[in-house]
Amino acid sequence: MGAITTVTGRALPLRGDDIDTDRIMPARFLRGVSFEGLEQHVFEDDRKKPVHPYNRHPFDVASFQGASVLLVNANFGCGSSREHAPQGLHRWGINAVIGESFAEIFFGNSVMIGLPCVTASREDVQTLMEKVEKNPQAEVHIDLVAGTCEVDGFRCAAILPPKMREAFTTGAWDTTGMLLENFDEVHATAARLPYVDGF
Amino acid sequence: MGKTLLQKVWDLHTVRRLPTGQTQLFIGLHLVHEVTSPQAFDALRTRGWTVARPDRTFATVDHIVPTRDRQRPFLDVLAEDMISALERNCRDFGVRLASLGDDRQGIVHVIGPELGLTQPGMTIACGDSHTSTHGAFGSIAFGIGTSQVRDVLASQCLALEPLKVRRIRVTGQLPKGVYAKDVVLTIIQRLGVSGGNGYAYEYAGDTIERMTMDERMTICNMSIEGGARVGYVNPDATTFEYIKGRPFAPAGEAFDKAVAWWTSLASDPDASFDDDVEIRADELIPVVTWGVNPGQSIGVDGRVPDPEKSPDRQAVTDALDYMGLTPGQPIEGMKVDVAFIGSCTNGRLSDLREAARIIRGRHVAPGVKALVVPGSDSVSRAAEREGLADTFRAAGFEWRGAGCSMCLGMNPDKLEGNQVCAASSNRNFKGRQGSPTGRTLLMSPAMVAAAAVAGAVTDVREMVPVDVAQGTPSGNRGAD
Question: What pTM was estimated for this model as a whole?
Answer without folding.
Answer: 0.96
